[in-house]
Every structure is written in structure tokens, then in C-alpha cells.
Specification:
Oligomer: single chain
Shape: extended
Number of helices: 2
Distance between the termini: 44 Å
Radius of gyration: 17 Å
């Protein structure tokens, strides 16, 4: 018997969720003293922002297939 995973429906797009997460991480980093943990939070925020931009770019109608 094959079990199906329950499907989630999100109110926001992936890009919006990634931007919200990046903002949350930056806010958390702001309250953290300088050090390894703060650097980790800032890095995760940058990665979330980059992922959002990549996803937005991939969804753009002007994207062409490589030749």
C-alpha cells in the first residue's frame, strides 16, 4: 500500500516566505553579540535572500533555455 504525504498549501509564495525568514534571522542577529552565532545567523539570512532571488529569477517569463 502506498502512503500519500499530506499536501500543504501556503498563503505566501516561496519568495515571500524566504524573505520573511531572512528578516527574522537578521533581527535575531541584531540582538546577538558579535561572534560565531551572529555570523551564522547573518550567513543564513544571506542564503535565504539569495534563494529567494534565484527562485524569482527562475520563475521570470524572460528566462531562456541555454543554447
Amino acid at each position: 500500500m502506498v502512503m500519500k504525504r499530506p499536501r500543504l498549501t501556503h498563503a505566501e509564495s516561496l519568495e515571500e516566505r524566504l524573505n520573511i525568514e531572512a528578516q527574522r534571522l537578521r533581527k535575531e542577529a541584531w540582538g546577538t553579540p558579535p561572534g560565531v552565532e551572529r555570523s551564522r545567523l547573518i550567513r543564513k539570512a544571506r542564503l535565504a535572500e539569495t534563494a529567494s532571488q534565484l527562485s524569482d529569477w527562475l520563475r521570470s517569463p524572460g528566462l531562456r533555455a541555454p543554447i
